[in-house]
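Before we proceed, please read the two lines closing this message. Let me know whether the structure tokens fit the sequence:

…
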Amino acid sequence: MTQPQRPDLTKDVAPTSASPGPSGSARSVLASDAERETMVERLREATAEGRLTLEELAERSEAAYLARTREELASVGEDLPHVTAPATAGSGQRSFRALFGDLVHHSPALEHGIEATAVLGDLTLDLCSSPAPPTGELTIEAKALVGDVHLLLPEGVRVEMNCSKVFGDLRDLTRAHSGPESVTPRIRVNGSAVFGDIIVAHPSSDRRSYWQKWLDERRGRA
């Protein structure tokens, strides 16, 4: 008697696909708005600890907004610790005065705002490398009395000017930032210009932010 042929138990089994490794599609998962907000909050915590400058906070917040994938978003804060320490209290508002002469100051502390006064002289404050204020916002009280107040700010900040003028001028020469307000450092400039000017501008170089170029290069290598 002929024995029935045993079925081939393997020929109809579909091969199992390997799980994606570090270089597979898992690295291309798109980041959500909630994940971007979480990264921005992490940046603000690091700012409160004094780990980031005002320029770095602006650039990294912009990078978090521009990041398309989780991998890109994680890279924005990969050099920051996961555990944050409470912010230390700083001193009061810092005052800078150019009286009957010119004064240039780089990287002043910004914890509680700045008072900038120019009387018969020019005051220039370069804030690009200053440690960012813990809240991500800064208020500057500016007074230009027969003199000029020049404020140099990094790319990526949002400027609000609420100043009066009497035979003076108010000029905001910063470039508009396209990111949402919730992730953009804010600079408020209050004060008055009397026979003088209050000028807010970026440094002379007209460039894209470091993080925008970094993301473009990274995507080009993908």
About this structure: The mean pLDDT is 78. The CA atoms of residues 66 and 150 lie 30 Å apart.
